[in-house]
Protein 1
Amino acid sequence: MPEAVELDHAPDLKRLYAKAAISTLIKGSTWPDHTLVRNDVIVDRQHLAEYNRVCGYGLTDHLPLTYPHIVAFPLAVELMAQPSFPLPLAGLVHIRNRITQRRALVVTEPLTVRVHLTEPRPHPKGRVFDIVAQAECAGEQVWESVSTNLQRGKGDDAADAGADLGRDGLRHAATWRVAKDTGRRYARVSGDINPIHLNRVTARLFGFPRPIAHGMWTKARALAALAERLPEACTAEVEFRKPLLLPATVELATRRTDAEWAFAVRARSGSAHVHGRVTDE
C-alpha cells in the first residue's frame, strides 16, 4: 500500500505549472510511490454551478459524474510537477479515462480524495501510466477515476493498447457548436491551464493550428446530454481520439443496448474525437 501524505489545502495549480515548466530542464529519475490525500473536502456550490454551465449539466444538488475529477486534479499535478518526476508534464497525452460511481454524490457531503500514480508500462506508441483518483464518503469509496496518459516514444507492438471503444450502429442524437473560448472557460473552472487549450498563439507552440478542447470537457459534455437516462451507479469509459480544434461543429451519436450506452463525439467528416460507453455498475 503506498504511503499516504495528507494535504490540508488544494495545491496552487498556477504555481505547479510554473514549477513543471522549470523542471523540464532537469530530468528527474524518481517515480512517485505515495498517495496524496485531502480530507473533508466541501464542494463550493458556486464553483459547481459554473462547472455545470460550462459542461452542459443541469443545476442539481447531486455532483455530475465527472465533477470529482477536477477536485482530484490538483493532487495529480502535485505528484507530476516535482523536479524528481521523470516525465515532462507538457508532453503527456491523455488517451483514456474511466470513471466508476457507486452511488449519487450530494453536494453537501464531505469527501476524502486520494490520488496516486501507477508504474509506467509499455504501449504500442510509447509508455503509459494511470492517474488513479478515489473519493470516499464516511469511509466508503463511492467514486473512482482512472486516467491513462501516454508518453510518446519507442513503443512495443506487443503491448496492450486498451480495448477499442468504437461501436457500430450509432445514431445522430445532437449537433453542438463548440465556441472558440470553450478551452479557456473550462480551464478557468477546472484549473487545467495547459497552453494547448487557451488560444491560437499558445496552441501553435505545441503544433496545433488552433486551441483544442479538453478531453474531459468533451467527456463531460457527452455525459451531460445523457445524464437523465443514466443510472446513479455506473461506469463511464472514454477513449480520446482526434483532437477537437476550436471553434467546431460536432455531432453526438448514441446507441442504447441492454448492456450499455455507447456514444461518440464526431466531426462532420465522421472521424471521432471521443468514443465512449456507459455500463451499469
Note: The two ends are 25 Å apart (CA to CA).
Protein 2
Amino acid sequence: MAQPRVDPQRHRRPDDGNPPAPDPQWAWFLDLDGTLLDIAATPRAVTVPATLPALLQVLRRRFGGALALISGRALADMEALIGPPGLPAAGQHGAELRLAAGGDVAVAARAPGLTPLGRSLRALAAAHRGVIVEDKGVSLAIHYRLSPASEPAIRALIGQQQALLADDLELREGKLVLDIRPRGADKGKAVDRLMQAPPFRGRRPLVIGDDATDRDGFAAALRRGGDALQIGPGASDLAPCWLPSPAHLRDWLGRIAATGPGDG
C-alpha cells in the first residue's frame, strides 16, 4: 500500500522558517557567506562543508544547469572555495560575470580612485586591530567584524575621501562590512543578465541570500515572477520566505537534491 505523503508544512515549527515549495522551473542564484556558508570572523576563516560542492552539482544537474553563485567575493575566490571552475557566476556583486559555462568573464574596469582609497584604508587598518581591507581586483571590502568600534573611523575616512569615489565607485553596506565597488554593479543586474542566457532563460529565478547586498537580487527575482529566500531570523519586505541559518538551507537543499524538484 502506498504511504501517505507527509506535508512538511503541517509538521513545521514556527522557528523552522517557511521556504517556498520547490519548482522544477527554478533558476538558482545562491549567495555564499551567510547563506550557503556560515559567517566566519574573517573571509579566509570560512569553512566549506565537505558535502556542499557535490550537493550543488546534483542540484545543477536536476535543474538543467540553471544554477549560479552570486557573491561579493571575487570569482577566483568563489571557485577556490566551491568549484568547479568555469560555471556561470557573478563575483564582486556582479562586477565579474560569466554568463555561460566555460565562457569568458566580463570584468568591470578598475576605477582610478580605488588604489589611493585602498592605500588610505590599509593605513587606517594598521592602526585599528581587527580591521581587514580586502582588495578583490575591481572592488574593496572593509571588514570590521573583529573591531566593531572602528566603524565610525572607517566611515569618517571614506567621507573625507569622497572625491575618490567620483562617478565610477559607490559605497554599499553589508553585515559588519563596507563595500566600495563599481557604480551600478549589483546582484540584481547580474540576475537580469544571467536570466537572458541559457540555461536560465525561460525559468523562474530563485535568489537566496542573507544580507542587504542581496536585496537587489531579491527585487530582480520578484520582478520576473520568481522567488526570494532570506537566510536569517525572519522574513523581509522583499523575501517573505525564509530559513533561520545556512545549516537549515543546506538541509533543505539536500532534501530537494535527494527527492527531485517536484517532490520537495
Note: Confidence is low (pLDDT under 50) at residues 1-12.
Protein 3
Amino acid sequence: MKKISLFALILFCPAFVFAQDVDKNLLVSLEKNGRENLKNRLGSVMEKYPNSPIPLYLEAYLEQDADRAVSLYRSIAQKYPSSPYAANARLKIAKYYYAKGSYISARQELDQVKGRFPNSEIIPEANFLAARCLMATGNYSIAEEEFKNIIRKHSYSPYKSDAREELKLIIKKFKQKNNVPETRRRAETITEFPADEQRAGRFTIQIGAYGDKRNATKQKEFYSYKGYNVTISSKYSNNRILYLVWIGDFATREKAVVFGEEFKIKNGLSYQVVQK
C-alpha cells in the first residue's frame, strides 16, 4: 500500500474537520486556536471530559502521524459507537483508506456511517465518497446510480454539484471505452490466468482477514462482481475464528505472485500468497 505523506492535507486539514464537526463548542475552539495552543490545552480537556470522546477526537486532530490518528479515531468508534463523534471518526477512517487505495475498506467504514447514523449531516459526504470508491475500481454503472441518488436525495448539499461533475466523467469514460475496437476490448477483459487453471493448484492470494464474516462476505461479493474467482476460508487463531478472503487457485507460488502483482496494480490492494 502507498505510504501516506500528503494525507495530512485530507485527514488533518481544518477544511475537512470544520465542515462536518458535531460539537459546536469544540468546532469554535478548533477554529480559534492554533495547534500549539490546542496541544497545551489537551491535558485540561482530558481532565474536564474524562468519559467523553472529545479528548480522543482532539488528540486525533492534533496527531501528525496518519496511522496513529486513524487508531485514535478507531478508538472513538469502538468506545462511543452511538456518539455523533463515531460517525465523524469513521468518515475520517474512510478517507484514510481511500487515500491509500483501499477502496473496499473505505466503503465498509462508510456503510457503518450510513447504517448507524442515517440522519447525520455527514451522510451526503459519506454517499459521495462511497460512489467515488466505486469509480476508482471501475464500477462506473453502479457509481453512476449512486451519484444520481445523491442528486435526488441531497438537493441542498454542496455534494450535489460534485456528483454532477463525477457523472460527466463517467459519461466520458464510457465514451472512451465504446470507442475502443471490439478486439482490443475483448483482449483487455481476459484475465491473466483462465478459470480452469486457477482451480488447479495449491496456492492462492489472500486479500483480507476478518473476525466478522459479514465483512469477508462484502469483500467477496465486491470482487466476485468484478469477475474474480473469490472464496472465503476460515481458520482458528488467537482464540477466535478468522474469515479469510482468497482469490484464485494456482499451481505454483510464482504464478500466484504474478497474478497478485497484477491484482495489486489494478485494485490498489495488498495481498499475500498462501499455501492451502
Note: Strands lie at 203-210, 230-237, 240-250, 272-275.
